[in-house]
From TrEMBL:
Source species taxonomy: Bacteria, Bacillati, Mycoplasmatota, Mollicutes, Entomoplasmatales
Transmembrane regions: 381-400
Active site: E277 (proton donor), K414
Species whose genome carries this gene: Spiroplasma tabanidicola
Entry's family note: Belongs to the GPI family.
Protein name (record): Glucose-6-phosphate isomerase
Function: Catalyzes the reversible isomerization of glucose-6-phosphate to fructose-6-phosphate.
Known catalytic reactions: alpha-D-glucose 6-phosphate = beta-D-fructose 6-phosphate
């Protein structure tokens, strides 16, 4: 479901000649769980090992909730929300024609934003899924207080009890204790799966079920990737190798993930977290950034074409089959001179732009381009792509010699903030 094209990467030869033994060794570290952080490799077999009972329970609870609400507030930050949002937007699009809207909170402490959401939902039928593995993260914690209170005040304690779901650790953390005390339905985040690897657990699956997304197809996609990528010559590993060569042998410092579909923007945000948090440590790693073309061709495109060289390369997601295609309408007067385009669909024009841009950036601009062909933007494709990138980052992180599964740097700001806020114990 993903086809990689390295013909404009400028390192095709180096990728082919890369030490196969090294790939084999790292693959063994991943599969045999012998590398750093290996107690966080629970996602590796999850497509065939997931808890079916819990999945069926989630389906039941989500079905009931879906009947009752218009808005689901998804509370979480980083890995506890980006996957669900990436899936929601990629699969349903930006203006879904569905009964239930997902709104994301807990990822900001902006009082202005939170107040806007309060005003938006206060007269609506809403529910809450509160996602936090540690159960102690400040941003989602204080946001939950606001909306739990709002639900109790605008409805009742009884209704709040039916409409609030917690996704957290099976035993520990403040959220687990709170959910148990209040009698909220709770689903579990497995111990051995970290936030940015948790899309296929209740973290991603529960909100997506409430949104009416076909999560069976999502699992089918992840399972297909799990099978397809067993061979060590797989393309996810080749992509990891290409990034490694561009970074450590050619000196590139950043990678921008480009897509030509606005509804892939949050997918890129998820990808940025996956690669940024997994690799950015010990003074190493590529800085992950993203662009959406055409819009960014009219801003960052200038920099990519003619700005500082040898810092940035592009990885382009080329979606072959759009969810919907439309034609450029005929106009008798042709005052804008655009009738020459009426034989093309928008998608065909978009694809032509993609070809022209690759030529401009890779050949004139000398910017390496890697192309990832995605078949579609549906649930199966999403599941496939998520697993594909998770396996790629495991290979990529271990090639760099770092632990891809921790995020020690994230704690530093938290400690500073807690000291300043006079949190007990800091
Ligand atoms: O990938 C990660 O581990 C992080 O982004 C976490 O998901 C994020 O910090 C939220 O943590 P928690 O789920 O404990 O609230």
């Amino acid at each position: 479901m993903i086809k990689v094209n390295f013909s404009n990467s400028k390192i095709e030869k180096e990728i082919k000649e890369f030490d196969k033994e090294k790939i084999k060794k790292v693959d063994e570290m991943i599969r045999n769980k012998t590398g750093q952080g290996s107690d966080f490799l629970g996602w590796l077999d999850w497509p065939v090992n997931y808890d079916e009972n819990e999945y069926n329970k989630m389906k039941e609870v989500a079905k009931k909730l879906r009947q009752e609400i218009e808005v689901l507030l998804v509370i979480g930050i980083g890995g506890s929300y980006l996957g669900a949002r990436a899936a929601d937007e990629m699969i349903r699009g930006l203006y879904p024609n569905d009964k239930v809207e997902l709104i994301y909170i807990g990822n900001t402490m902006s009082s202005t934003y939170i107040d806007q959401v309060v005003n938006y939902v206060k007269d609506k039928e809403f529910g809450i899924v509160n996602v936090s593995k540690s159960g102690t993260t400040t941003e989602p914690g204080i946001s939950f207080r606001v909306f739990e209170k709002l639900l109790v005040e605008t409805k009742s304690k009884e209704i709040a009890k039916k409409r609030i779901v917690a996704v957290t650790d099976k035993a520990k953390g403040a959220l687990k204790e709170l959910a148990t005390a209040e009698g909220y339905e709770t689903f579990t985040i497995p111990d051995d799966i970290g936030g940015r690897f948790s899309v296929f657990t209740p973290v991603g699956v529960f909100p997506l079920l409430v949104a009416g997304i076909d999560t069976d197809a999502l699992f089918a996609g992840s399972k297909q990737a799990y099978e397809d990528l067993k061979d060590i010559n797989n393309q996810a590993y080749q992509y990891a190798v290409a990034r490694y060569i561009l970074n450590t042998k050619k000196g590139f410092k950043a990678e921008t993930l480009v897509s030509y579909e606005l509804q892939m923007q949050m997918f890129s945000e998820w990808w940025k977290q996956l690669f940024g948090e997994s690799e950015g440590k010990d003074g190493k790693g590529l800085f992950p950034t993203s662009c959406v073309f055409s819009t960014d061709l009219h801003s960052l495109g200038q920099f990519i074409q003619e700005g500082t060289k040898n810092i940035l390369f592009e990885t382009i997601i080329d979606v072959k089959h759009p969810t919907k295609d439309i034609n450029v309408p005929e106009n008798k007067e042709n005052l804008d001179g655009l009738n020459y385009l009426t034989k093309n669909s928008f998608h065909k024009i978009n694809q032509t732009a993609l070809q022209g841009v690759i030529d401009a950036h890779a050949n004139d601009g000398q910017v390496p381009n890697i192309v990832l062909e995605f078949e579609t933007m549906d649930a199966k494709m999403f599941g496939y792509a998520i697993y594909w990138f998770m396996l790629a980052v495991a290979m990529s992180g271990y090639l760099l010699g770092i632990n891809p599964f921790n995020q020690p740097g994230v704690e530093i700001y938290k400690n500073n903030m807690f000291k300043l806020l006079k949190k007990p114990g800091y």
